[in-house]
Amino acid sequence: MALPTRKESFELLWHHNVPQNIIRHSIAVSRLAADIGARLKAEGKKIDLNLLDRACILHDIGKLAAIQSGGSHGEVGYSILLKHGYREVAEVIRKHPLHCILDSKSRPKAWEEKILYYCDKRVREHRVVSLRERLADLKKRYPQYREGIRRAEPLVYRLEMELLGKK
Length: 167
Ligand SMILES: [Fe+2]
Hints:
This protein is mostly helical and 167 residues long. The protein contains 9 helices and 2 strands; from the N terminus they run αααααααββαα. A hairpin with a 2-residue loop joins strand 1 (123-124) and strand 2 (127-128). It is globular.
């Protein structure tokens, strides 16, 4: 598997003009993911912690390009990483946008995908917050997607249960 180092991952972010606030968000997501990933791995789940880390660092690499082109930033990020030859990271980040959980095809399935998806929904800017706070924040920022967010909500809570055993 071709996996960028952490240093190469940050160089890719700079190369694609990812703003500093998104980089800080991505680092915070990677920290939470490392904790959850290590705990689940210790319980015997098959998780590649390096793949998870790089996917967290790179998950929003397509954000700016997607705003410019109007596409989904998961898909744009997927194409960028494919182009750089990082297929496994590309697959993990493809399924992280909120709406992906609504469709059985795009729903996060591998542990790395589930953990990235979930941790991204627990980090607001670069702070770890509750799902409730983050989802409320998303509804406020993206009123046009409020209905989709509402439909995704119970599935995100179910994922939290699966990863943390939390109600
Ligand atoms: Fe994202």
